[in-house]
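How a chain folds remains the central question behind the approach discussed here. This step matters because it turns folding into a mapping between discrete strings. The sequence in question and its structure tokens are set out directly beneath this paragraph.
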Amino acid sequence: MAMADTERRFTIAQLSDLHCGDLRFDPGLMENCIRSINEAEPDLVVVAGDLTANGYRDEFEEARGYIDSILCPRKVIIAGNHDCRNVGYLHFEELLGPRASSMSFTHSGACGRHLSERVEVVAVDSNKADLDDGEVGRHNYTFIKEEFSAEVTFKIFVLHHHLVHIPGTGRERNIVWDAGDVLQVLREARVDIVLSGHKHVPYVWPLDRMYLITSGTASTWRTRGFTPPTFNLIEVVGEEITVHVISASDGERRTEVYPRWWCHERFAGYGR
């Protein structure tokens, strides 16, 4: 008997740039976001940095309260550049955990010949204390390579900063300093998706059979142009990846569907 669609679908909730403590933080947006995510019953929640405005402990405590109300057993949380202000990374580590982490699990699904998905999530800290700039750093390259083991069928990499320019963000100055080297490491590891936040504009860049997916600000009005506060729901079903960009203010969504390149035999054998 074929599995029901809900059993086969692997759902990721991606949110970032909460900025608790900021003057433009809106609790109503945060509550809308949490309600929608809980209704979607995701298999994984990724919070891609900038939980706070200035890295103060009370801001982290507020952010943790919201994150704890998201009903999902698997959460990956990383710090952003705002979280590392005022030595805030110490509060992050105490309240939310290490700044680099990995997680692996099996999800029942279908991908070509595979009867299930072995999922690996690797998250690193790309921040420089008290700077908006970022760098993954050579010390993390070996960690990334080792964690993305060959037998994994779906690979997710998480960082706060961008690896490429994002349209609609103005003059881009905050791509990680070692973006080219990081992209090469991820390409060789055959990573499926890269999740990030940072500039409050949601976007999907297809790049060398990877998808670089950024999320907007989930809970503030620190928006750019006509871009509303948003978060992402990403659904992986069979040989497709569907990205829903959802407004935290009114629930309106924009949906795009992309192929999973590594599922297709004609691409899987390509050189790296």
